[in-house]
Here is the input.
Amino acid sequence: MKEKELCRLIHVSQLYYEENKTQSEIASDLDISRPAVSYLLNKA
Here is the structure.
């Protein structure tokens, strides 16, 4: 896994699990699709 991908995975996980943001909120904040957020969370 590349460092950039790992950083994004960690960031998405923190937003979801620690800040209790929804997948849709994260997608909007990071300008990525909601399925991309789901993919990253499943990978975490």
Remarks:
- The helical segments are 3-18, 23-30, 34-43.
- The two ends are 12 Å apart (CA to CA).
- The first helix runs from residue 3 to 18.
